[in-house]
Amino acid sequence: MARRLVVVTGASSGIGAAFARQFASKGWDLALVARREDRLKELAEEMKARFGVDSLIVPADLSKASAPKEIVKAVEDAGRQIDGLVNNAGAGQPGHFIETKWTDQTRFLQLMVTNYLALAHLVAPGMAERGFGRIINVSSVSALLPSANAHTRFSGTLYPGAKSLLIKFSEALHLELSGKNVHVSAVAPGYTWSEFHDVNGARATVSQMPKFWMLTAEEVATAGYDAVERGIVLRVPGAWYKFLTALSKILPDPVGRAIMRAQERRMAARAGAGQ
Question: pTM of the entire structure?
Fold first, then answer.
């Protein structure tokens, strides 16, 4: 009997690679998706050596509308079915909303929202029919906290809203598929050590943060895998971020926004002092 197979997008580094390792350690075969084929091949070799699992290499650019169907076709052409999906591929769109091109914003939405939903839409029916499936959508703790200008500078004005949609979508799809043994979870990490911050120009700021603010990709992947196996719809990794999200539910919105602005000023001052 063939092992179950999970598609992991954005698998070439960071949280995506950590999810690949987490699923492989549990005996899953992998379909590794990202633009950097060389990184995927290295990861596939590592997974074979460490865990004895097989990997399909699927180079794809998930900012393109055609990517979801191409990914699913590549898996089906290999004679495999998709039992799990980790929607993780992503990048920010730094800069003020009114100063960026709309084509850049639509590319961001295609990558961070539309193609997440498209992949889930393609694979969920088969999961429901077979009576087994696991879908993880990588969201962000920013979806659960008051917005801050840092989102604009490093990730984009649309970033918190896009990540919020993934949480609501995960909740709704999980309910829709209840009783079919198809679990859908959103994992909402805070700041995590990865190349994401290098790409977005946030490395200097992130490097000045207190250590308890920072998560590892492995912590995020472990939390996400545990959540989807247990059927928990939303998981916030890390004690600090659990505290922040719980506090945000108690405080009035204006107070929460004021706290975020004050914290942002402290972070900016700390980053400036470190230069």
Answer: 0.88
